[in-house]
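Narrative progress, year one. The postdoctoral researcher (J.K.) led the effort to move from monomer predictions toward full complexes, under supervision of the PI. The following entry was the first complex the group processed end to end, covering 332 residues in total.
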Amino acid sequence: MKKGIDAFTIAEVAARAGVHETSIYRRWGTKHALARDACLDHADGALQIPDTGSLRLDLIALLERLVALLDSPEGRALLTLSLSQHPHVVAARHAFWQRRFSLVHAIFERAVVRGEFPRRADPMPFMQMLIAPLYLRVLITGEALDDWPSKEMVDRLLTAYAVPPT
Amino acid sequence: MKKGIDAFTIAEVAARAGVHETSIYRRWGTKHALARDACLDHADGALQIPDTGSLRLDLIALLERLVALLDSPEGRALLTLSLSQHPHVVAARHAFWQRRFSLVHAIFERAVVRGEFPRRADPMPFMQMLIAPLYLRVLITGEALDDWPSKEMVDRLLTAYAVPPT
């Protein structure tokens, strides 16, 4: 069985989409660019930004979506692909994360307005402390994701940010 | 120039160490096992467990050592090597991390005795939140490690653990 990028042809994609092959080549240029965008679309779809009206619930919902994605075969494949050191992949990965962090920023802007997060604090280190252990576990330590106490960690960090740093 | 595992021979290692080649083969069996143990030794040496008498200072010292290692060519090479999906590498990586976490545990045991960390709290999620963002940055987002506010994050987490969870 062919795997990865060799498992499909542009002709097959065009046939399934009901468009002409040239339309796909015109838009994406290469099969790699098409596969990359399909992966990123999948990640964006799986990690939609919640808006529950509560910072705590938004963060818990986002972490639950991330655990589900990282525990799925598609999520693992996407993560493995994204770790390539090929310059195009590195650039696409960094751009993807910059865009994701700016989307996540909206959660904190709403929280600041509701008085749930200090206006002067930088939300990005907060967010990275919440999500990074999941990546550490998948990529490095091999520990199970469902052992990770996401809710407790959200509550601990919210406590930490409610108290002014000494 | 030869790189990685092809850059040296057992004969060269034996000559430098002043021992007979068979001594090396007897102990390690393969060049891969020798290279793996050399890497792990290097990581252990670079990441010695501090004992300053203060949990806060122990954590800051450990994070500074980790940043220095991850910012060094040796540290990057070791990390890239360790991400291989080869079953032997995966097993060695998981064993290394289990051992490292048990070493780090000593920092928290001393802190519990000094009344600096709650006896009932699990220190491992605490530790993973501190170190994981550094790995996220190196492997995934590409952000600089020296932008990471290690000391502020240590202080925030210590605050979070000083207050009982709601």
